[in-house]
Input
Amino acid sequence: MSIQQVHFWVHGGVNGHVFSERPLVMGHEASGIVHAVGSSVTSLRPGDHVALEPGYPCRRCARCKAGRYNLCPKMKFAGCPPDNHGTLTKYFKLPEDYCFKIDPKVIGLDEAVLLEPLAVGVHTARQVGVKPGDEVVVFGAGTVGILCAAVAREFGARRIISVDVNQNKLSVAKPFVGESICETFIPDPALSAEENAHALLSRHGLGLPANGGGVDVVIDATGAEPCVQTGIHILRTGGAYIQTGMGRRDVNFPIGLVADKELVIKGCFRYGPGDYKFGLELVQAGKIVLKSLITKVFPFEQATEAWETTRRGEGIKTLIQGVQD
Output
């Protein structure tokens, strides 16, 4: 389960916005076993193990036809208010091409759940243009942040710095991404964004942007204002920044630096064509091993405790297991 879903669980919405007062089934990171298929389905059959891409578009609008179906205004996304019920149910109906068959001997149903946030990592790296030789800083060492860093490694980044205020999460990120390529940094909340940026760059020998230093790419998987600001400060001239994490709708943003350094600023909204498939290929090839990110698995009857475990920030990924017939 994701932090966004925890906000729905606790507050009925995110960022202070309540989206629905009606009951809503939660869940969007999911896998399962095919129970039945329609008469036109050719690639799946009952009993197949599948990872679920939990949203499907209208396929007809301008965004869909432009190949950006994740931006479809009529997207049916699981667990999204007010009327799109989620995957925490015995049966969930989904179009054939949004179900990705997995080999249970290679990928377990538990690991397959993490293909959803992995697809976010793939979309992030593609959007921001991570390329071989890049130095990348990823703010946030939760599930999405760690997977963004791992995908950046697969895209050729030569150095990755994972940033978080939680040492336990950084202790997971470093070996998962790679001891030889991943470094870590804990910002000081008593310092300003500019001061933390200076400390990060100095500690890792990256030089200051004013002197030709800085990093090539910043990925923010937190949405926290200090991370956003620090990220802009540490970028080199001509660098690229992407906002993947969700925080407050409005933050103080150093827009002057964006112009001065001619930065590329992009957003990431879920995932698009090929992202899920590419993530699955990375896992099948053994490039990214997801199982180590799973902290706890709760039976469906203890779903409430699973939500609370995630809310308390314990571990990296908590799963809820349904009852199998």
Notes: DSSP finds eleven helices and 15 strands in the chain. The first strand starts at residue 13 and ends at 14. The chain has a mean pLDDT of 93.
